[in-house]
What we know:
Helix content is 64%, strand content 0%. The protein has 18 helices and no strands. It has helices at 2-12, 17-20, 29-35, 75-88, 93-105, 110-123, 129-147, 154-167, 172-184, 189-202, 208-218, 223-236, 242-258, 263-273, 283-293, 300-316, 319-335, 340-349.
Amino acid sequence: MTALITAVAEACCFSCDCCDAHPRDLESSAASQVLFNTCVCHTSYMLDATFSDLEPLPQDDGPVPVVRIAYPDGFEEVMSYFRRVVVTGECSQRTLQLSAEVIAHNAANYTAWQYRRRCLEAMHSGSSNAAREQAWREELAFCTARGRENLKNYQVWFHRRSCLARLGSGPEAELEFVAEILRDDSKNYHAWGHRQWVLSSCGGWEGEAAFVEGLLEEDARNNSAWNQRYFLLQHTADLSSLSVAEGEVDFAARFIAAAPGNPSPWNYLRGVVEPLGYSAVPRVRLLCEGLLAGDAASGAGRVAAMSLLVDVLDEGGDPAEQERARSLCDSLEDLDSLREAYWQWRRSRVGAQQPTSPYAQ
Length: 361
């Protein structure tokens, strides 16, 4: 491993003020910077013997470019050499180096990420299982280093999945990696999407409920966490089960009681109960009636409780309750004046047995 790091470091790091400032101790963090090529200082490939046999392939902007892009120093040269190896189809250590430098300049360059996967597959097609696994572990480390700098980059996350799929590792370490990312940005949907992929592909469902609940305790308005709880239910529970629905109503009710005006648990409650029908889960009505009878719900909380109660009363089909639903719509025109037109429309649809959204088909 040390020999590989030495070779890559020597190949990747040319003479520049930035890199000369780093000690060449391969056990240091600076060595990782060299290995993962996080330096984007402009250094000429023409002066490096590693690339002396390559003829750069410049970008073809046509004979009369309309607007010439002002690329940063070094970018055009790196891309010119990279284009050449892509055209020739070369898969080698130096092409991995080139792709790393392309990524250092532009982490969203999906061709560079794809070419890294292609190179690794070709270079280790005849290797032992241990050598192949080591190569992909090193690539995962490279991806981690780049990923921490580009946490909302599609290509980084896709490449990470590719590495994990080839390694066939268990879910524990990767779930912890994503948890670390979410601790800094709990609504990073790239990280949430990756977490769902890990759970679906590698397992680890047993600890997810506690993880999500912890995030909701910190921020009950985290819609990503509510979505993750529903995703968990879809894969580990029977959503047509009354006991499951009742349990989730109780779960949502706990957060509603703490902040009645928070729309997140209300929306979650609807999503869980609507497939069964509100009449099948009486505690939904009890929740709404209880909030409206007390002083806990005011403003947005009162609007949320009344809004859900309109749907509950309408669904039952009882004429008297549907008349009450219309009366609630009248009140909501004043309480929720921004959506006055919607509540007028909703009142007109009471008893129609049609979708309660004007956008539903």
